[in-house]
C-alpha cells in the first residue's frame, strides 16, 4: 500500500538524514522534495503546499536544527502533520437513532455494494447491531442480486422491491420494514451514478430529502487518485455527506486520495476497504495511515 508515495517520501527524507548537520536550507530543500512527492501522489497543490509550509515552520520552531536526532524529530513531526491532514482522530459513525439510516453513495464500480455488505457485517459482528440492507438500484437487477448474495453470506436480511421503479418509495418501504422487524440499522445501497449525470444526482438528493439519513457515506475507489478528490467534491456539494469510504486500498494504489480528500471536502474518512471479502473493512485511523505512508 502506498509504495509510491512512501518510496518518494523516503527518498526525500534520505536527503535530509544523509546530511551531517541540518541547516535551514536543507530543511527547506527536503520540504520541496516532499512537496513534489505529495504532488506526484495526486495530493492537490494547495494541500501539499500548506502541509510542507506547516511542517517547515514547526520543524524550525521545534529546534530540529539543534536536536540530537533531527531526522527522527522531523519524521515525528511529519507523522503528526500527515495524521492531522487526514483528520487527526478516528471519526466514528453516529449510531444512536433506532433505526439509524445510512445512505451509501458513489460512482459505479467504486465498491458501494461490496462496502454495504461489509458495513452490515461489521455492525452486526463488532457493534452487536441488527442491520437491514435495502437494494435501491432500480436500474440494474444484477445489483439487487449481488446484494442478496452478500446478505445471505453474512446472515443479514435484504429488502427488495423488484416491481418498483421508484427509489424514494423503496427507501421508505425499507425503513418501514426495518421498524416492523426490529432492525436498528438500515443501510441503503443506491444506484451507481456518474457525477455528471444530472438526473441521477437529483434522484439521490430526493432520496436523501425523503429519508433524512443519519449518515451519508460517499464510497470512492482510492486507485482513481485526483479523480477521487474531484468526485468527492461534486458529491459533497450535492449531498453534504457525513463521511468517506476509501476502497481498494489493498491494491497498488497511491496515497493521494487519503491525503487530500479530508482537506478538500472537510469530511472525515470513516472506513477503508482492503479487499473483496466481507471482512476486508477497517475503521480509518489517521495516525496508522500516516505511519504506513511514511514507512
Ligand atoms: P459498485 O458498483 O460501486 O457497487 O461496486 P462493487 O461493490 O460491485 O465493486 C466493484 C468491484 O470492486 C468488485 O469486483 C468488488 O469485488 C471490487 N472491490 C470492492 N471493494 C474492494 C476493495 O476494497 N478491494 C478490492 N481489491 N476490490 C474491491
Explain what the structure shows:
It contains eleven helices and eight strands. It has 295 residues and is an alpha/beta fold. The protein has an eight-stranded mixed sheet, sandwiched between helices. Strand 5 (215-221), helix 9 and strand 6 (243-247) form a beta-alpha-beta unit. Helix 1 runs antiparallel to helix 2 (24-40) and helix 5 (112-126) runs parallel beside helix 6 (141-154). The radius of gyration is 21 Å and the shape is elongated. The termini are close together. The protein binds guanosine-5'-diphosphate. Guanosine-5'-diphosphate binds next to helix 5. Guanosine-5'-diphosphate (GDP) binds next to helix 5.
Provide the fold topology.
Blueprint: H1 3-17, H2 24-40, H3 45-61, H4 70-85, E1 100-106, H5 112-126, E2 131-136, H6 141-154, E3 158-159, H7 167-181, E4 185-190, H8 198-211, E5 215-221, H9 226-239, E6 243-247, H10 256-265, E7 269-273, E8 281-283, H11 286-294
Parallel strand pairs: 1-4, 1-5, 2-3, 2-4, 5-6, 6-7
Antiparallel strand pairs: 7-8
Helix pairs in contact: 1-2, 2-3, 3-4, 4-11, 5-6, 7-8, 9-10
Bound molecules: guanosine-5'-diphosphate.
Subunit structure: Part of the signal recognition particle protein translocation system, which is composed of SRP and FtsY.
EC number: 3.6.5.4
Domain SRP54-type proteins GTP-binding: 268-281
Amino acid at each position: 500500500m502506498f509504495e509510491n508515495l512512501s518510496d518518494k517520501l523516503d527518498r526525500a527524507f534520505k536527503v535530509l538524514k544523509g546530511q551531517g548537520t541540518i541547516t535551514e536550507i536543507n530543511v527547506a530543500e527536503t520540504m520541496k522534495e516532499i512537496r513534489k512527492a505529495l504532488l506526484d501522489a495526486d495530493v492537490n497543490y494547495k494541500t501539499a503546499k500548506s502541509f510542507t509550509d506547516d511542517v517547515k515552520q514547526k520543524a524550525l520552531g521545534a529546534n530540529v536544527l539543534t536536536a540530537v536526532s533531527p531526522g527522527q524529530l522531523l519524521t515525528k513531526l511529519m507523522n503528526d502533520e500527515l495524521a492531522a491532514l487526514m483528520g487527526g482522530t478516528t471519526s466514528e459513525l453516529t449510531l444512536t437513532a433506532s433505526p439509524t439510516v445510512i445512505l451509501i453513495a458513489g460512482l459505479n464500480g467504486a465498491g458501494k455494494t461490496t462496502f454495504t455488505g461489509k458495513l452490515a457485517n461489521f455492525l452486526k459482528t463488532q457493534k452487536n447491531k441488527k442491520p437491514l440492507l435495502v437494494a435501491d438500484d432500480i436500474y440494474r437487477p444484477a445489483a439487487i442480486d449481488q446484494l442478496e448474495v452478500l446478505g445471505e453470506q453474512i446472515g443479514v436480511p435484504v429488502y427488495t422491491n423488484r416491481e418498483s421503479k421508484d427509489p424514494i418509495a423503496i427507501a421508505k418501504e425499507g425503513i418501514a420494514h426495518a421498524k416492523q422487524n426490529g432492525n436498528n440499522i438500515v443501510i441503503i445501497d443506491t444506484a451507481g451514478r456518474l457525477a455528471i449525470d444530472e438526473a441521477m444526482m437529483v434522484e439521490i438528493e430526493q432520496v436523501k430529502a425523503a429519508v433524512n439519513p443519519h449518515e451519508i457515506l460517499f464510497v470512492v475507489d482510492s486507485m482513481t487518485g485526483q479523480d477521487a478528490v474531484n468526485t468527492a467534491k461534486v458529491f459533497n456539494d450535492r449531498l453534504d455527506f457525513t463521511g468517506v469510504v476509501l476502497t481498494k486500498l489493498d491494491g497498488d494504489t497511491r496515497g493521494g486520495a487519503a491525503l487530500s480528500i479530508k482537506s478538500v471536502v472537510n469530511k472525515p474518512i470513516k472506513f477503508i476497504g482492503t479487499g473483496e471479502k466481507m471482512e476486508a473493512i477497517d475503521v480509518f485511523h489517521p495516525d496508522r495511515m500516516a505511519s504506513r505512508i511514511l514507512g
